[in-house]
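Incident log, support desk, overnight shift.

02:14 A customer reports that sequence design results differ from what the structure should imply. Their input is reproduced verbatim below. On-call engineer (initials T.W.) acknowledged and began investigating.
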């Protein structure tokens, strides 16, 4: 499964790992993706979302209805 957030669109970043001897090798910085289940009252069902930790806090602030509207506006399936 791809490591991306459905709400914010956060995706892995890429960079270099630097050893003690200063040799550089490629690495990836993954977002902190969690699976979270929310009750969606307007549809009378639960939805399971792949969200970053920052997006979970955003859902708590804006509400699940607004968050699902934003996800659907981005073209993601909920």
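02:41 Re-run completed on a clean worker. Output:
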């Amino acid at each position: 499964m791809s490591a991306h957030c459905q709400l914010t669109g956060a995706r892995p970043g890429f960079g270099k790992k630097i050893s003690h001897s200063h040799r550089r090798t490629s690495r990836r910085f993954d977002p902190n993706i969690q699976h979270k289940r929310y009750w969606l009252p307007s549809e009378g069902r639960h939805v399971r979302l792949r969200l970053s930790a920052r997006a979970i806090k955003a859902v708590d602030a804006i509400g699940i209805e607004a968050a699902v509207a934003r996800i659907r506006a981005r073209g993601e399936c909920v």
